[in-house]
Design a protein that fits this description.
Helix content is 20%, strand content 34%. The protein is elongated. It has a nine-stranded mixed beta sheet, with helices on both faces. It has helices at residues 33-39, 56-65, 80-90, 106-115, 118-121, and strands spanning 2-6, 25-30, 46-49, 68-71, 95-99, 127-131, 135-140, 143-148, 155-160, 164-171, 177-183, 198-203, 208-213.
Amino acid sequence: MNIHIMAGGPPEFVPDLRAYKQENTIWVGVDKGVLALLDAGIEPQYAFGDFDSVTDEEWLKIERQVTNLIRFKPEKDETDMELAINWALEQDAGTIRLFGATGGRLDHLLANIQLLLKPLLQNLDAEIEMIDNNNHIYVKGPGVHSIAKMPSRKYISFVAVTPSVSALTLKGFKYPLNGCNIPLGSTLCISNELISDYGTFSFEEGILLVVRSSD
């Protein structure tokens, strides 16, 4: 089962959601993201948030069209997105995709990137991906990981999100590596490219943020 979560980020950053209408998928709206889903012709099965960014008229629309509404007080310890992700992880979803989670406020973006780490830190099998018009972002833990060429996401960057990532090896890339240690703050692995249809990246310790981008 997949769970797709739509946040209330700027609409110009949101990809065509029709490409992600798949079977066995639950759609979830977060705050104003509920309206974005409804405008795209997608009826969310669930909605989360304090809904402090919607008007009274918009709230009435949400109440009419969404069956499962989970509303919180604005004074809380988690963001609306974190509350939705916590719920999604409890459903044993295989893949959780976040839309409308980039652009606009930088603090929201940084918080959403950190939320990608939740499954790894909790030893869960789920993977969280953040997707917008130009980027596809996820994290990986130690091991050997395959990666396929995506013409729409030509550039691939690897960023350490732990103090270091040890023994990083890149095969099938324009700029290969063999057992390189990547410290936090390094830009060594920014803007690489695959030279074949598939490549692999592997490392022994740490957590990598993987960013697949287009210009």
